[in-house]
Specification:
The chain is an alpha+beta fold and 474 residues long. It folds into 2 domains: 4-237, ATPase, nucleotide binding domain (Nucleotidyltransferase, domain 5); 247-429, 2-Layer Sandwich (Nucleotidyltransferase, domain 5), CATH 3.30.420.40. Helix content is 36%, strand content 19%. The protein is built from 17 helices and 17 strands. The protein has helices at residues 51-68, 106-113, 116-126, 135-145, 149-152, 159-168, 175-178, 193-198, 237-243, 275-279, 302-308, 318-329, 351-361, 370-396, 413-423, 434-446, 453-460; strands at residues 4-11, 15-24, 27-37, 41-43, 46-48, 74-78, 84-87, 155-158, 214-218, 229-232, 253-258, 262-265, 283-286, 292-298, 402-407, 427-429, 467-469. The strands form 4 sheets. A 7-stranded mixed beta sheet has the order 13-14-12-11-15-16-17, with helices on both faces. It has a 6-stranded mixed beta sheet with strand order 3-2-1-6-10-9. Helix 15 (413-423) links the parallel strand 15 (402-407) and strand 16 (427-429). Helix 14 (370-396) packs across helix 15 (413-423). It is globular, with a radius of gyration of 22 Å. The termini are far apart.
Length: 474
């Protein structure tokens, strides 16, 4: 079996990486060749992504990947969900790309929330709840405020679709990412025409989504990568992270991809729908092969990261992080937890002030120092994970025997233990680049180096040794 090198472009809301996966003798080795910061920029009261800056970094990283691995076979791109680029027939952007945290969708969010019949109808059609960042609300606001855009734009490419286009020259929509938009038909693999009509969006902007693992063709956008193939991997980073999970083929695993958001869910052949699912805000997103990935969003490490920014003593390296977690672990468990579903935590000017305001409103004591905030936040996120598990068990009629966690949170022993304690389930924490691994797995399948996802998981799991957190009474 020959050695294969694949480049994963993995873009997150706060950083991006280009990682090369080397597949040899049924083992995967990762080499990070480029890392760069990412953030949205604000102007005129709105938030935007710097797409030229991202493309510059992607190009730099891929050139470095090719330099270090001359036989590089392929490249795949995954990003965070929902955000998009409107282009014309020539592929030129015709509108700036907003960041999903922009508050422009709030009026539309409230209108839909206050129209129960429409809310239920759209959930029944798409399986996606009413959330401020949905592509549906973003696109509807753009069309309403700038109606001439429907004359200028001919295609809506979501972020990984757009970078795939810059690389390959092919305009496509990939299914896992399409499923984040609140526009895909939950009962099929095409767009929901009734939902497009509700939000006044041109159906011609979209083409039937393709499945992941599809080879789009050779790289055309970077001459140094001539001969390298572009593979449409699961475009949504959460879908990639889930694919990296060493799941039990018999089922029974709940997954958590822990980063800026904690994305809690499982794999299913059928969606989870109905009034209870809508109330629980279950998102029926898709796996790259078109099956379902019901999940719910818990605010995640964004809550901790943004709080720590306001402390001069915040950790800046692994040793300082370990010291902080140890100090927080020694504190008594908080008697009352934060309500992590509070919308005030989405993007406040001061996260510490937002936390203090909730505690003050509930007449609860404020944390006294950075360790106390860390203890409270991790315990609250752990309870949020447990609440999601119980909602899934109730609504899907399933029982989960263990929790698998990847991402930044897998390294936080306080968070993992809090999750185990609150859920009553063992937590298996895997320290791995989950999104990059899932991205590369899709490329290997597309290149026919690996038969399918089940085969990849079985082979890759041999390389992994989880840290297991068993439930403890506190």
């Amino acid at each position: 079996m020959k050695t294969i090198h694949c480049a994963a472009v993995d873009l997150g809301a706060t950083s991006g990486r280009v990682i090369v996966g080397t597949w040899a003798k049924n083992k995967l080795t990762l080499t990070e060749v480029h890392r760069f910061p990412n953030q949205f920029r604000s102007i005129g009261g709105h938030d935007y992504w710097d797409l030229p800056g991202l493309w510059t970094q992607i190009s730099q990283g891929l050139r470095e990947a090719k330099r270090r691995f001359p036989s590089l076979a392929s490249v795949g791109v995954d990003t965070w969900g929902v955000d998009y680029v409107l282009v014309n027939d020539a592929g030129r952007m015709v509108f700036p790309t907003h960041a999903y945290r922009d508050a422009r969708t709030q009026p539309g969010l409230q209108r839909l929330a206050n129209t129960r019949a429409a809310l239920e109808r759209i959930y029944a059609a798409t399986g996606i709840p009413n959330v401020f960042y949905n592509s549906s609300l973003q696109l509807a606001e753009t069309v309403a405020q700038c109606p001439a855009v429907t004359d200028l734009a001919t295609r809506c490419l979501f972020l990984p679709d757009y970078f795939n286009y810059l690389l390959s020259g092919k305009m496509t929509n990939e299914i896992s990412f399409a499923s984040t938009t609140q526009l895909l038909d939950v009962h099929g693999t095409d767009w929901s025409r009734a939902t497009l009509d509700h939000f006044h969006l041109p159906a011609t902007w979209f083409t039937p989504p393709i499945l992941a693992n599809t080879v789009l063709g050779p790289v055309k956008g970077l001459r140094e990568l001539a001969g390298v193939k572009v593979v449409a991997v699961p475009g949504h980073d959460t879908a990639c992270a889930y694919d990296a999970m060493p799941a039990n083929p018999a089922g029974g695993d709940l997954y958590i991809s822990s980063g800026t958001w904690s994305l809690v869910g499982f794999e299913s052949d059928t969606p989870v729908l109905g009034a209870g699912a809508l109330a629980a805000r279950i998102s029926n997103e898709r796996i790259g092969d078109g099956r379902y990935r019901p999940l719910t969003n818990v605010i995640g490490l964004w809550l901790l990261e943004q709080t720590l920014k306001e402390f001069a003593a915040r950790p800046t390296n692994d040793r300082a992080w370990a010291k902080l977690i140890t100090a927080a672990t020694r504190l008594p468990a908080p008697k009352q937890l934060l309500d992590v579903t509070d919308p005030a935590f989405v993007n406040p000017p001061s996260m510490r002030a937002a936390i203090d305001a909730q505690l003050k409103k509930r007449k609860l004591p404020m944390p006294k120092n950075i360790a106390a905030y860390t203890r409270l936040i991790c315990a609250s996120l752990g309870q949020g994970h447990a609440d999601a598990l119980r909602a899934f068990e109730r609504l899907a009629g399933r029982q989960f025997s263990r929790i698998l966690i990847v991402g930044g949170g897998s390294k936080n022993r306080l968070l993992c233990q809090a999750t185990a304690n609150a859920s009553g389930r063992p937590v298996h924490a895997f320290t791995l680049e989950g999104t990059a691994v899932g991205n590369i797995a899709s490329q290997l399948i597309g290149l026919r180096a690996v038969r399918d996802l089940a085969t990849f998981r079985a082979l890759f799991s041999r390389q992994l040794t989880p840290v297991i957190y068993t439930p403890q009474s506190v």
